[in-house]
Amino acid sequence: MRFDVLTLFPGIFAGYLQQSLLNKAIEAGKVGVHLWNFRDWTTDNHHSVDDKPYGGGPGMLIMCPPVFDCVEHVQAQGDAPGQLIMLTPAGRKLDQRLVEELSTHKRLVLLCGRYEGFDERIAEGLKPLEVSVGDFIANGGEVPAMLLIDTVIRLIPGVLGDETSHKYESFAQSGQLEYPQYTRPREYRGMKVPEVLLEGNHQAIAAWREKQSQERTASRRPPVELQRASTQAMRSSSEILPLPN
């Protein structure tokens, strides 16, 4: 999979690209990450990319021309244009379902904003998929872009050492949180590994894990549990009545 990251601060990614699974995936040729600087498409001596918002207000907005020109150049690279994504708090929430959708693309082009964000006409004209990594404000789109890359590459065949491991993680199957896990020693500072995990009864272990997953989800992520139940109900009802477009 190819990622193109469009940003004002490509240097932020230097250390990130050289670490852990992502670095191994890049070296193995399973993932490619290309960095592009909006300033390379400016036309004035100061390489200006931002200006004051019409109507007043604090901060500066990233202007249309360098972004449009940069995107059009980048999309012309490679075998085919990629799915354009704008990292923004106003976008669709990044969850495992969206991660799975994004992992089906061969190429993702990520727009990283700064300052007070992008001129609205960038979203209007380029029509990116707008994605939010949470209901909070970051200094820019670079860290959210890293988070998106991190989640997507885990679903690329050959990136994880154990090809089945992502299937059992939180949200991967039923939308529930993952069950608690333990390793050696069997007892540490008075805390013991649950006996069921030591007895070798795989059926009992599976039942224990499912129960723990359900209880953890109910206590820590009630909205997730409610959303899952609602989704299941909608699927059941859709067998009788068609869902609205």
Automatic annotation (TrEMBL):
Its main location: cytoplasm. It holds the Pfam family tRNA_m1G_MT. GO terms for cellular component: cytosol. The keyword Acetylation does not apply. Coiled coil: none annotated. It comes from the Bacteria. Residues 209-218 have a biased composition (Basic and acidic residues). Belongs to the RNA methyltransferase TrmD family. This is tRNA (guanine-N(1)-)-methyltransferase. It comes from Planctopirus hydrillae. The lineage of its organism: Bacteria, Pseudomonadati, Planctomycetota, Planctomycetia, Planctomycetales. The gene is trmD.
